[in-house]
Write a structure and sequence with these properties.
The structure holds two protein chains of two kinds.
Chain A: H1 7-31, E1 41-47, E2 51-53, E3 64-66, E4 70-77, H2 81-111, H3 119-135, H4 140-179, H5 185-205, H6 211-227, E5 230-234, E6 240-245, E7 252-257, E8 260-261, H7 275-284, H8 290-313, E9 318-319, H9 324-327, E10 329-330, H10 332-336, H11 352-358, H12 364-406, H13 410-444
Antiparallel strand pairs in A: 1-4, 2-3, 5-6, 6-7, 7-8, 9-10
Chain B: H1 5-32, H2 43-98, H3 104-125, E1 128-129, E2 132-133, E3 168-172, E4 175-178, H4 184-187, H5 198-210, H6 214-267, H7 271-297
Antiparallel strand pairs in B: 1-2, 3-4
Helix pairs in contact in B: 1-7, 2-3, 2-6, 3-5, 5-6
The chains are: A alpha+beta, B mainly alpha.
């Protein structure tokens, strides 16, 4: 089969077009260098199907294969799905500890310990006031001071307890905001994922690779992994099933099944989804959450305070209801008339009762219990902060590995840019060489003697 | 490993972040001079510090109580001292009156002075400290004796009768001390009660003087001398209690110093170490900034034409 004289032009043209596509891809990469979730793309080239020609010189006269230039076969994104899975697992863990640390921080702040304004300082002042009363058993000013200090103490307890409750409600409010249906953040992501699944599978069925749509879907999955532990199941045709997985029971709670959003909100009973939801539940759920335990500690410490003081006083100095921490108060008759406090069971100067109360200072059931409680709160936050730092390091290192594969390197793109530009120039040069050749053939051939 | 632009930026940022975090923590330490400002910084140390603070607070209160008790004891001592002086004077007068050279008139004159001395003794027993009668047991708002002929003790037995708690002060953890002296112990209730206490004896002396009864007066001398001794005994007891209070103060001061030192060791920042940390961290931060600025700025573009 004879070859057209313009064959070489065609080959060069293919080269030009291919280099142009490569340059386009490089521009796309550079443009998206700082796009979150973008994975770099690459044009896949392949040599065009060769043309079979007959050559007199070939060994068995069957012909030879003449190269025909280059074709752009497709554009692929460079991404490692295994690292994606690792990243999501670490991200779940990080979000869990982040949520715990942030919410326990609020709880700890409300204690104002160690310092001169916390319950510990108020307790010390309270015992001092009783000791002063023991020294001046018939002094109305000393009795007034006892009532004032007692009210200062009960106010502190009330305020710490209500701030703990606020921390608990804050955590649960955030949890609801994330998980509620409709309108929660998970529900919104689920809707978007279902839409993306629909569009992606349309392209994939046609054999296309909608790289940028897939990037967006992966980004949404990353976001979802922050809320809880997810499992992703690849379906034929490019679609995905996504569900939350309970860390303890292994039960799956579907979020997206193929092209429909199936997120129905968190289960009615308890679950341990991990991630931000898991962290928030760990802090805020009632019963069983950390803050719930703190409230119980405050209540039991408060009851112990009231019981011990009343027993030593031999009457009702403090009254408590349920829960003790928010209802403890100086008994109404004493509040109305502080002078009615009896300092001793004997004469005006006897101070055995006041002395008995002031001797409660450093009592393990009151002071000791409170100290242990503060150490517990501090211990939980301390652990959460440490784990958070660990999780951050792990997540960063996985993200680095991921970026190492999928990220855009400017230096690389720059060198590619030069490479592709040169290749383009070379193809153009090949074409103009062909052009000069044809010029000789068309314009100069047969003009002998002219 | 392939290093991409965003990796470099992320790493530079993360490093700067962690360094400036450390710097901020060290800065907070230097500013507050505290190693731990929140329980989560070190839960164990924080609870220890809280315990130490309560301990220091309780100690301060013990010191306050001891100061109050010392004042009380000093007032008691001065009241007992003036009673002693009166009794000494009474004894001298009695010796004067009991000699055979004294006649009825001079004995009457002595009797008049002695009656005044009895009033003086009762007034001394009515001494008060901070508005509280100190020798009336727990009846601190009642003067122990009335001025005039009625010699009956008006207070209560608290502190004298071991079954009734007196004025008790807590001078250390679990250490309490009864600090009051009941006037009745020495003075008694006068002639009506016939208890052979000071007032009874002195009233007898007055009667004997008025009756010009020389032999009875010579007998009375021993009785009055016995009261002088008894008073000395009470004052010695009082003094030893004051000593005990002083010893307790010294001990509390030592404990207070130990607790304060321990608290400082637990929660105060080591300034030298903090400043050295601060300097090395800020040097590291500046180095990271410089390196970061250089690595983020340069790229292949700077070298391609």
């Amino acid at each position: 089969m004879p070859i057209s004289s313009f064959f070489g032009m065609q080959t060069s043209l293919r080269g030009l077009i291919a280099q142009q596509r490569l340059l386009d891809t490089t521009s796309h990469n550079i443009a998206n260098a700082s796009t979150v979730g973008y994975s770099r793309q690459e044009a896949t080239l392949s040599a065009s199907l060769a043309q079979q020609i007959q050559t007199s010189g070939s060994a068995n006269q069957t012909g030879a294969h003449l190269g025909h230039g280059v074709d752009v076969v497709g554009f692929r994104r460079i991404r490692d799905t295994f690292i994606d899975a690792q990243y999501r697992a670490q991200n779940t863990n990080l979000a869990d500890w982040n949520a715990r640390a942030a919410n326990l921080d609020n709880a700890e702040l409300s204690l104002a310990e160690p310092g001169d304004t916390g319950i510990n300082a108020q307790l010390t002042k309270f015992w001092k006031a009783w000791s002063d009363l023991a020294n001046n058993p018939n002094d109305d000013a000393a009795k007034q001071a006892v009532v004032q200090q007692a009210q200062g103490l009960t106010d502190s307890i009330h305020s710490v307890r209500s701030q703990m409750v606020a921390a608990q409600q804050g955590a649960m409010g955030e949890y609801d905001q994330i998980s509620k249906v409709p309108g929660g953040e998970i529900a919104m992501i689920a809707g978007e994922l279902a839409d993306l699944n629909t569009s992606i599978s349309k392209f994939v069925i046609n054999g296309d690779h909608p790289n940028d749509l897939m990037d967006r879907r992966d980004l949404l999955l990353d976001k979802l992994s922050q809320y809880g532990q997810i499992s992703v199941e690849q379906l034929d045709g490019g679609s995905l099933n996504v569900s939350f997985v309970d860390g303890t029971s292994g039960t799956a709670y579907p979020i997206v099944s193929d092209k429909t959003s199936t997120w129905a909100g968190p289960p009615a009973g308890g679950w341990s989804p991990g991630g931000q939801m898991g962290g928030l539940l760990e802090v805020g759920r009632s019963p069983g959450g950390l803050v719930d335990g703190y409230l119980a500690s405050i209540d039991s410490f408060t009851s112990a305070l009231a019981t011990n003081v009343n027993a030593a006083y031999g009457g009702t100095f403090f009254t408590t209801g349920a829960p003790a921490g928010s209802t403890i108060a100086v008994s109404a008759p004493i509040q109305a008339a502080p002078a009615s406090i009896t300092s001793g069971s004997g004469g005006t100067g006897s101070n055995d009762l006041a002395l008995a109360v002031s001797r409660l200072v450093g009592n393990p059931a009151v002071d000791g219990a409170y100290k242990a409680f503060v150490a517990k709160v501090g211990g939980h936050l301390n652990e959460a902060t440490r784990q958070q730092a660990n999780a951050q390091v792990l997540t960063d290192s996985v993200e680095n590995r991921r970026q190492s594969v999928a990220g855009v390197s400017m230096d690389e793109e720059m060198s590619n840019l030069v490479r592709f530009q040169r290749a383009y120039q070379a193809s153009a040069r090949a074409m103009s060489t062909m052009d000069e050749m044809l010029d000789v053939l068309i314009n100069r051939t047969g003009r002998v003697g002219l | 490993m392939r290093i991409t632009t965003s990796m470099v930026q992320r790493n530079v940022l993360a490093d700067l972040n962690s360094l400036s975090n450390q710097l901020a923590k060290t800065q907070a330490k230097a500013a507050s001079q505290k190693e731990i400002s929140r329980p989560s910084d070190d839960p164990f140390k924080a609870s220890q510090a809280m315990g130490l603070r309560s301990g220091i607070g309780a100690n301060e209160q013990y010191v306050r109580t001891i100061q109050d008790a010392t004042g009380w004891m000093d007032s008691t001592e001065s009241a007992l001292g003036s009673i002693s002086d009166y009794v000494e004077r009474a004894h001298t007068l009695l010796l004067q009156g009991s000699t055979d050279t004294s006649d009825a008139a001079s004995r009457k004159a002595i009797a008049t002075e002695l009656t005044q001395i009895i009033e003086g003794i009762k007034q001394s027993a009515n001494a008060s400290y901070g508005g509280k009668y100190i020798m009336a047991g727990t009846a601190i708002d009642t003067p122990p004796y009335q001025i005039g002929a009625n010699d009956a003790y008006q207070g209560d037995e608290a502190g004298l009768d071991p079954a009734i708690a007196g004025i008790v002060r807590e001078i250390g953890p679990g250490v309490s001390m009864t600090i009051n002296t009941v006037a009745r112990e020495v003075l008694g209730d006068g002639q009506a009660a016939a208890d052979n206490k000071l007032l009874h004896t002195l009233r007898n002396v007055v009667d004997h003087l008025n009756a010009n009864d020389g032999p009875a007066l010579r007998n009375d001398s021993t009785a009055v001398q016995a009261h002088v001794d008894k008073l000395l005994g009470v004052r010695a007891r009082n003094g030893s209690q004051t000593n005990r209070l002083e010893a307790a103060t010294t001990r509390l001061d030592q404990i207070s110093l130990a607790l304060t030192t321990q608290l400082s060791n637990t929660e105060d920042a080591d300034i030298a170490k903090t400043m050295i940390d601060f300097n090395s961290q800020s040097a590291a931060y500046q180095a990271a900034l410089r390196a970061g600025a250089n690595i983020v700025q340069s790229s292949l573009m700077d070298f391609l034409r």
